[in-house]
Amino acid sequence: MSFIIRSAAADDVNSLTELMHEYVVGFYQNPWPGTEKIHNLIQTLLEKQQGVQFVVEQEGKLIGFATLYFTISTMKADKITLMNDLFVLEQYRDTEVESQLFLECQRYTQKQGFAHMTWITSIQNNRAQLFFEKMGGVRGNWVNYSII
């Protein structure tokens, strides 16, 4: 299986938008925030100041993406990455594609001098939790909350 993992580029906006729609609406069954908002998000990430997106390309088609946001940890007193998204199309889950995309995020974190990479997934996403444990992830001691 031949594929390329690379930073997202301006030419990827439309294909990446379709992939993000599959992720937000299809996989997580959340409402679509709107194409304009997604395009603004992608543009922000293309600037690589607040975060970065990686894509997986196979035969000219995007089959997955990952998003790292840059933030700071008080506990580390240092900058860290937050992997907010790791998504590959269903047929690529539990394959080298998914593992290599995760490892690319980890390599980027290390090469850019971030203290560590952290991530979140839905409490119901048991498959992802097993994947993260297989990749060496350790469940943290913190409970996430959000408010609407």
From TrEMBL:
Domain of life, per lineage: Bacteria
Record-annotated N-acetyltransferase domain positions: 3-148
Chain ranges passing through the membrane: none
Residues making up the signal peptide according to the UniProt record: none
SUPFAM superfamilies reported in the protein's UniProt record: Acyl-CoA N-acyltransferases (Nat)
Keywords: Acyltransferase, Transferase
Gene3D superfamilies xref list: 3.40.630.30
Cytoplasm keyword on record: no
PANTHER family referenced in this protein's UniProt entry, alphabetically: DIAMINE N-ACETYLTRANSFERASE, GH14572P-RELATED
Name of the protein described by the UniProt record: GNAT family N-acetyltransferase
Organism: Brevibacillus porteri
